[in-house]
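Letters spell out the chain; the tokens describe the backbone. To illustrate:

===
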Amino acid sequence: MSQQPQLVRSKLPFTGRIVMFFIRHIQHAMGSMGELWRNPISSVMTMAVLGVSLSLPAALQVLVKNAETITQSWNNAAEISLFIDKDRSERTIQSLLTRVSAYPEVSAVSYINRDQALAEFQKLSGFGEALDYLDDNPLPAVITVTPSLKYASPNGARELLKKLELEPEVSFGRLDIEWLERLQAVVKLLERTVLAIALLLVLAVVLVIGNTIRLAIMNRRTEIEVMKLVGATESFIQRPFLYTGIWFGVIGGVLAWLIINVLVWYLDGALAELLGLYGSDLEMQSLTLVELAELMLLASFLGWLGSYLSVRQHLRAIEPS
């Protein structure tokens, strides 16, 4: 009896065997979907757990992506302040302004002389008329340099600062970009946090799906024993459970994508209002279609992996008595 199917299968042409291979897989895939439909409550709860678990690292990934976008848009905010020696004449300073403006790395130059610097400090500091009693103006003249787009990054602006400090009239320079470097350090910390949390939640997804498949195997123990008695192969028995895990992963990935879209829609208004205070009109980005496809592939793989580990362990323990 066990050799008859082999004889029939051998008479099929190669293309026919390929077609039958796909037909059997489609049948098992649809059959596993039917099993989920026949147990809606437990299936929905499992999918909801998977959706929430996958949405957490996806939400952090969206947060990191938007933080990187904001950081890149603020890279052009780098400014270099050059403090001039107090004993330099106005004519010498104007010559320096001409030379600095001719730098290919420089986009714009502005100049604040010593009197303007004192007046601005008097206005902002709150000392008022108390500064009028100073015998001499202690503040130096300042040249503010805006780097070109190519040199607006922290490394490029720092390189330009070293070059400008070589000018003889410059006492020292300051790069107003430390806040941007701190922001980039926060973004890198978020990236590592996303990776660590994603690994933990990936393990959680595999364990949840594995436990769900284990319960499904236990519920169908008698059916599996009968199938082994009539000579069903291991691959034939385990294939529906593998597809069940894949369905869990795919639908959980879709739920995670929906959760992310709802969160982005909810937070977009508040973020736009916050960025508007800083003169930015950036919009919050959600998952792209490519990232959605990657999420679906990852979720389906995790579903398959959890099912495979559970099936390999528990199916071998079931033998017909």
